[in-house]
Design goal:
The chain has strands at about 5, 15, 35-40, 45-50, 55-65, 70-75, 75-80, 85-90, 100-105, 110-115, 120-125, 130-135, 140-145, 150-155, 160-165, 180-185, 190-195, 200-205, 210-215, 225-230, 235-240, 250, 255-260, 265-270, 275-280, 295, 300-305, 310-315, 320-325, 330-335. It has about 350 residues and is an all-beta fold.
Length: about 350
């Protein structure tokens, strides 16, 4: 286990002070697998592939940019949002050839992206407080939409884009009110702003069409909540007082459970139908890991264990079914779905 020297939670920059990477890049085959979980290794700035058919891991199959933050899989390609490099990289997962990256412009600090269709995607940029509409066929930014302070999470529902604004006002300053910016997905026009909990970050779309926003709180007196938005009315229809400091959110539709990763501690869990808390801060789900989190199409939960350079697969009850050794400091996860 490597030693973590420091972890600074600075939302717009996501700056990590860590020790030198221990994992040397390997030179694996370029796997063209039929079923996979893709892993973004933050400190190694690389991608690992968990082959779900052969139950095999390929580490460091490609190098990514500075401060990589998110992986997104779509139609045979894997996209990596690099916050420090201010770009989106694209890889063909059959050959692992790198395609020309999308340059988003300096000073943006892109955090997360979501596809609207095969041509257009939207990108949340926390330093410039903007959402970018990007033509992914020409690799160009075609529209810049002003959002709130610290734009981070992003999702699409009901033909609208929802971008969370953390309200991070600088080290030592209180957070500004948390908000979600609503944008017309077809045109890129701003529609309205919704007030949610403190420090909203990750957003997930539930099976019933509602949006669940993970609000981390201020890491102190204000605990975390989940703000549930009905996109039919663009209003908050429920607040789950989950407690703790939840990070990324992933929903298990069939199990009717929401999982919120907590750094180094596992996950908080609530029922997405009744909104009852299942696992609060006192009885954390899994009890380890907690950076990246993903629920696959079979309702299995995958959790990155940053400190141990591992990804674990578990069922909804918290039983670990498999453990995979990946690259240095795993975070974001993506599933190959065709």
């Amino acid at each position: 286990m490597k030693r973590l020297l420091a972890f600074l939670v600075i939302v717009p920059a996501l700056s990590f002070l860590i020790s030198a990477c221990e994992d040397e890049p390997t030179a694996p085959e370029a796997p063209a697998v039929s079923k996979a979980i893709y892993v973004l290794n933050s400190a190694a700035t690389s991608i690992s592939v968990i082959d779900l058919v052969e139950n095999k891991v390929y580490n460091n199959v490609q190098t990514v940019g500075t401060w990589p933050n998110q992986l997104v899989y779509r139609n045979g390609y894997l996209y990596c949002v690099n916050s420090g490099s201010n770009n989106i990289m694209k890889f063909d997962v059959k050959t692992w050839a790198a395609k020309p990256p999308v340059d988003l412009g300096s000073g943006k600090n892109p955090m997360n992206m979501v596809f609207y269709n095969n041509q257009f995607a939207y990108v949340a940029c926390s330093m410039s407080n903007e959402v970018l509409r990007v033509d992914m066929t020409s690799n160009t930014v075609v529209k810049t939409i002003k959002a709130g302070v610290g734009t981070t999470g992003i999702e699409i529902a009901n033909n609208k884009v929802y971008a969370s604004n953390t309200g991070y006002a600088g080290w030592g300053n209180p957070y500004l009110p948390g908000t979600v910016t609503v944008i017309n997905a077809a045109t890129g026009d701003s529609l309205k702003t919704i007030t949610v909990g403190t420090n909203p970050q990750s957003i997930a779309l539930a099976k019933d069409g509602k949006l669940h926003v993970s609000c981390t709180g201020d890491y102190g007196a204000t605990p975390g909540v989940v703000s549930v938005i009905d996109p039919a009315t663009d209003t908050v229809v429920h607040t789950v007082n989950i407690g703790g400091a939840p990070g990324n959110i992933a929903l298990a539709p069939d199990a009717k459970l929401g999982f919120l990763s907590v750094w180094g501690a596992g996950a908080l869990v609530y029922n997405t139908s009744t909104y009852a808390v299942v696992n609060g801060p006192a009885n954390m789900w899994l009890g380890k890991g907690g950076s990246g989190i993903l629920v696959d199409t079979d309702d299995y939960v995958w959790l990155s264990v940053w400190d141990d350079d591992q990804v674990v697969k578990a069922n909804a009850g918290g039983t670990i079914l498999a453990t995979y050794d990946v690259g240095d400091s795993p975070a974001s996860l993506a599933q190959k779905i065709d």
